[in-house]
Amino acid sequence: MQVTFLGTSSGVPTRSRNVSSVALRLPQRGELWLFDCGEGTQHQFLRSELKVSQLTRIFITHMHGDHIFGLMGLLASCGLGGNVKSIDIYGPPALEDYLQGCIRYSQTRLAYPLKIYQSRPGVIYEDDEYVVSCGYLKHRVPAVGYRVTEKDRPGHFDVEKAKALGIPPGPIYGKLKRGEWITLSDGRRISGVDLCGAPQIGRKFVYCTDTVFCDGAVELAQDADLLVHEATFSHRDADMAFQRLHSTSTMAAQVALAAGAKRLMMTHFSPRYAPGNPILLDDLLQEARAIFPNTDMAYDFLSYEIPRFDQNCQL
User: Is 156 annotated as a binding residue?
Assistant: First the structure.
């Protein structure tokens, strides 16, 4: 699971930061999932190592322009490229009307199947490897956050030990790898658990934006290996954050701390914190680290491999 930030500004793009979009790459299955799609996201793809042809799912948090204005352009380009097999999109109820209107008035024809699903609290997608759920956040318009949970995998299967026990290779190994019991021709019963190492605990990625501090974000982020959370404002601008229902750096850190997350990556920064302003982005980082030390700030094109629980987290 590798996260690449394609846009880390809030509201409007800047010279160094585009508006919101985060890609989750699943290399083992050759897929790419996208979270939000602000204006210019398809240009960010061109400047990155990501392949649009691998895009299979898009998750939209809410209907503000800095999170959706790039969506129709990206979908149209995917169709013209001809490499996308199909795309499933998840988002607020208004998203389908928005996309259908864009398709109708621009007379765009997509050369691949497009399915649109409403993101309601709870599980919205599941397969053999992953579960995706969402929950309500607190913003000026209906907004949700997303949680991607990788399912636990069996531990490493000890082939040499199996051979030493006289277990013949073949389909029976598959059962043992899954931890099942098997019965050999001589009557011996052997448990696959005894031939496998400790299970690989699935990783958890959580994406929360836009929102002011709320219980929904804390619940969604429980035990996350990586929490990506908006930090639009400095703690010194908390009044503005409450008025606009956005988070400060300290609110993001408080969510991470309360949820028991392993790492916090802040994003969605206000362009106001530029050189010349008495408050700079580094100040936001120090504010957050005072509460949750394992915090970093995202920047456009940062790629980060989400480690398993027993690995060190290095940027």
Answer: no
At 20 the three-state DSSP class reads coil
Is 43 part of any known ligand binding site? no
Exposure of 86 in the CB half-sphere (CA atoms within 13 A): 5
2-7 sheet: strands from edge to edge: 114-118, 87-91, 55-59, 31-35, 21-26, 2-7, 303-305
According to DSSP H, which parts of 171-278 are helical?
171-177, 215-220, 238-244, 249-259
Q: Count CB neighbours of 125 within 10 A.
A: 18
On whether 67 is known to bind a ligand per the annotation, the reply is: yes
Asked whether the beta carbons of 80 and 47 are under 8 A apart, the reply is no
Q: What is the pTM of this model?
A: 0.89
Place of tokens 């609110």: 251
Helix 71-81 vs helix 94-106: crossing angle, to nearest 10: 60
Catalytic residue numbers read 66
User: pLDDT tens, position by position, for the chain (315 residues)?
Assistant: 999 999 999 999 999 999 999 999 999 899 999 999 999 999 999 999 999 999 999 999 999 999 999 999 999 999 887 688 999 999 999 999 999 999 999 999 898 999 999 999 999 999 999 999 999 999 999 999 999 999 988 788 888 888 888 888 888 888 888 788 988 888 899 988 888 888 788 999 999 999 999 999 999 999 999 999 999 999 999 999 999 999 999 999 999 999 999 999 999 999 999 988 999 999 999 999 999 999 999 999 999 999 986 544 444
Contacts of residue 132, Cβ cutoff 8 Å, sequence gap at least 6: 59, 90, 123, 124, 125, 126, 146, 147, 148, 149
Q: Which domains does the chain have, with CATH numbers?
A: 2-153+200-305 (3.60.15.10), 159-195 (no CATH)
Q: Is 64 annotated as a binding residue?
A: yes
